[in-house]
Amino acid sequence: MKQRNIFQKRSFSRGRFLLLLTLAATAGILTLSFFYKKKSFAQSNYNYGNDPILLRYAGGAVSLPYAADKPAHNTPVKAIFSILNFPSNPNLIAPGLRLIAHIVNLYRVAGVNPKDVHLDVVFHGNGTPAAFDNQTYAHHLSRPDLKVTKNPDIPLIRELQKDGVKMFVCGQAMHVLHYHKKDILPGIKEVYSGLTFIINRQNHHYAYFEL
To answer: Strands, E, within 107-151: which ranges?
Structure first.
């Protein structure tokens, strides 16, 4: 009977030791898995150190390797964006420009070569003033109940230009508004008209977005 009790105690101790060992191993695996996932997520996020304005104005983007459809690589990406809409408060950034910045982020996070991404923007209609310099913008949009001193779109436009986005403005709209090339921001080219420019781009297989 005494030997039996000793055997039972040894069996109980061994079982408890194996249980503790199993629990410790499980905890270790879960801990390593947590840090691995955390590290993987951190690595999947694009480092926006070189593009703080795009992040601030358009939000971030993350890599999704398991997505059912992803941006194509080694294939030209061609799109033209029509900036027609304008915020009711001219001291606010045009929403369409924020979306374009987000698209730039999406392709960059996906690892698409920037040389393969061809994005054109044309300002026309109500969106024409976004292409103006500060003085012209303030002169055109200031009113008795609202003071406008500068074009809030300029910082983002400059960053988009640095990222290869090409900017254009409708010559017909400029004529109607009685403004000239000197009133347009540097790097923005005047085209014959926004509508014919869009048609020309679509004939060259550019996707079209009205913003």
So the answer is: 117-123
